[in-house]
Amino acid sequence: MTAVHIPGVPVIDAGQLVSTSPATGAEAGRLPVATDADVRQAVARARAAGEWWAGLGFTGRRQRMLRWRALLAKRIEQLAELVHVEGGKPVADAIVEIVTAIEHIDWAARNAGRVLGPRRVRSRLILAEFSAHLEYQPYGVVGVIGPWNYPVFTPIGSAAYALAAGNAVVLKPSEYTPAVGQWLVDSFAEVVPEQPVFTAVHGLGDVGAALCRSGVDKLAFTGSTVTARKVMAACAETLTPVLIEGGGKDAMIVDSDANLDAAAEACVWGGMTNAGQTCIGIERVYAVDAVFDAFVDKVVARAGRLTVGPEGTDIGPITMPQQIDVIRRHIDAAITSGGRAVLGGPSAVQPPYVHPTVLVDVPEESAAVREETFGPTLTISRVRDADEAVSRANALSYGLGGSVFGRRHAVAIARRLRSGMASINSTLTFAGMSTLPFGGVGDSGFGRIHGEDGLREFGRSKAITRRRARSLLPSMTFDRTPTDVARLVKAIKAMYGR
Ligand code: NDP
Question: I need a labelling partner for 133 at 20 to 30 A (CA). Which of 28, 78, 213, 478 fits?
Answer without folding.
Answer: 478
